[in-house]
Amino acid sequence: MNAKIVAGGLLLLVFTSTSGIAQTSIDIPQQTFGLLDAIQQTLAKHPNILLGARQVDISRGVLQQASGQFDTVLGANGQHSRTITPLTKLQQAQAQAAGVTASSQTTESSSYAASVQKEFRNGITIGPQIQVNRLADNLQDLSGLNQSTIAFQVILPLLRGRGHNVVGAQEMSARFTVDATLFQLNHTIAQQLASCAVQYWNVVAAKENLQIFSNSEARGKAYLDDVRTLIDADRVAKGEINQVVANLADRTSSRIQAEQAVLDAQQALALSMGMTTRELRTFPQPIDPLPDWTQSEAPAVTPSLIQSFTDRALQNRGDLLAANEHERAAEVLVPAARNVLRPQLNLGLSLGYSGLLEGTNYGRIFGSPFYNLGGPTATGSLTYSFAPRNNVGRGELAQAEGSYQQAVIQRSDIERTIASNVSSAMIDLASSIARLQKAREAVNAYRVALEGEQEKFRLGISQLVNVLTIEDRLTNALSQALSAQLNYATAIENLRFATGTIVDLNKQTQTLEKSTFLVPPFDWGAK
């Protein structure tokens, strides 16, 4: 009889005896998943994908921060003071002579300034500024003096800090880094989806393998019953029972091991799907069968075809495109670092006018820019600075050049790794198909051999041990054929990942098709 297994149950204890098979199981909650359901859950929940998305947010924040260098900056300040200074007898007498009676000098001064400044990506900085001042006291400026200065200032770097490729280097590097993290996120998505598909097929294969060994165990029990019947009829020696009991025990052991393999595979699938701690208590149950190769021949693997697949992989792989962007991000920083070695020489130009308005009314300070205008006034300046050793600049250049060379090496290494992975994945896929076909031939041959050996045993011209041996070989052949089909399914996912054909890098929102995970890419081998 078939051994009863609670779906996905955890086997605690199995007793095997000559009277039958007893087992105790704990019932574990199950939830069925189609392949596409598992893929979608992985896309929505897997921590690596979520971390990659947050890394994109971080890189965008770095870009925004780098762009802040070119923000328009508004500035303002103001102050007001009132100072009372006691006068000496002589000073009081002098003030009396001038017609002012005072024992102290009261001075009020106010100053306000506002400015707008903006640096352009070519290094030029411009901005208007205005400053107004008010001064009044009870001895000298009795009528109050309100003055203003308005100017427009331009600073032109002549050596260091000049040019878009120098001034905007950090922003350009940050923009390339954003693109790199987007490509890397898509690569991570492809990696996790391929892993999820492989784990899904592992569960499907583990359950089918369990069925193979459960059927083998049931046939072993049937053999045991048949031998007992033959012993009771004195057609078989009593000693034959021992090898049948031993054979059944061995088959039961294999079935127990297969049960444990199902549970392990289910947990691996749950983790690959990104299930939470609470969700891991429910074991996923796949409902889609393993993909199968139905053509009569395995697809050809030629050097030209490998090169074609490799060329397309180099265009589709997110990790390589990310490496390209990282290389560009490092490259644009080299000219900026080299520019730091130059002296600082800035030309400053300022053009403006001044205004004046008398009066003790405090509001007149803000009217001074519009009365008694004088000018225009112009100012030019040159500012020079240079550190002879310039360790800061030399250190920055060494770091920038080293980072760029690292990026070049990493990109080159990823390229050659992709080429190797594509070749290996194509060969693995073709080999898995050839193995699958031969494994199925072995199954068919062992079935015919078993039927013949059983017939000879019934006729009394063969021993029971021969039947059991062929039976075990058939079971092993069935398991090997299943393993070959699993290898074929895994090879599809590996080739899909190697060629970068799981997700579309040109789309922000991925639309996934089940067929992507069921057939090789580029219609390879289709007829």
Q: Look up the CATH topology of the largest domain.
A: Outer membrane efflux proteins (OEP)
Proportion of beta-strand residues: 15-25%
CATH architecture of the largest domain: Up-down Bundle
Shape: elongated
How far do the termini sit from each other?
44 Å
Task: Going across the biggest sheet, name each strand in turn.
Answer: 4-5-6-7-9-10
Number of domains: 2
**How many helical elements?**
11
- Oligomer state equals single chain
What do you see in this structure?
It is built from 11 helices and 10 strands. Helix 7 (303-316) crosses helix 10 (391-458). The chain has 527 residues and is an alpha+beta fold.
Output the keywords.
527 residues; alpha+beta; Outer membrane efflux proteins (OEP); 2 domains; 6-stranded antiparallel sheet; two-stranded antiparallel sheet; 10 strands; disordered N terminus
Quick synopsis:
By secondary structure, the chain is an alpha+beta fold.
Secondary-structure blueprint of this entry?
Blueprint: E1 10-17, E2 20-26, E3 30-33, H1 35-45, H2 47-67, E4 73-86, H3 89-97, E5 104-119, E6 125-137, E7 145-157, H4 164-167, H5 169-232, H6 240-272, E8 283-286, H7 303-316, H8 318-331, H9 333-339, E9 344-358, E10 374-385, H10 391-458, H11 464-499
Parallel strand pairs: 3-8
Antiparallel strand pairs: 1-2, 4-5, 5-6, 6-7, 7-9, 9-10
